[in-house]
Design goal:
Pfam families: SUKH-3. This protein is of the alpha+beta class and 110 residues long. It has one domain. The protein is 33% helix and 29% strand. It has three helices and seven strands. It is globular, with a radius of gyration of 12 Å. The protein starts with a helix and ends with a strand. 28% of the residues are buried.
């Protein structure tokens, strides 16, 4: 775990937001900030994206009840992780974007 993920999880770890409905540019989705929801089953996906992006993307939780995953890199950029990678931006604005339903920007596709 890198310092940005450690600081993020110290502040927000365990947070669960049961969200839904229209957002600014996409639907607002529920999310849970708990790396253990991701780590045991998706670590290969995070390692592969980290290598592809030359960033250390650490799993921090799940989005939409496990449909997507959330990761944070060493620069505090928040990602939606799936078979593609999209960015919500850097903290602290990234968390606002996630909560308010701002569509993340695709940065890589498999």
């Amino acid at each position: 775990m890198h310092a940005a993920a450690e600081a993020f999880l110290a502040e927000f770890g365990g947070l669960a937001v049961w969200n839904g409905g229209p957002g600014i540019s996409s639907a607002r989705e529920s999310f849970e900030l708990d790396p253990m929801l991701v780590w045991n089953s998706e670590e290969d996906r995070f390692l592969a994206w980290s290598e592809t992006m030359s960033r250390n993307i650490f799993p921090i939780g799940e989005l939409d009840h496990g449909r997507f995953f959330l990761g944070l890199d060493e620069h505090a950029e928040l990602y939606l992780v799936e078979t593609w990678l999209a960015s919500f931006g850097r903290m602290p604005i990234a968390l606002d974007n996630l909560v308010l339903g701002v569509m993340p920007e695709t940065v890589a596709d498999s």
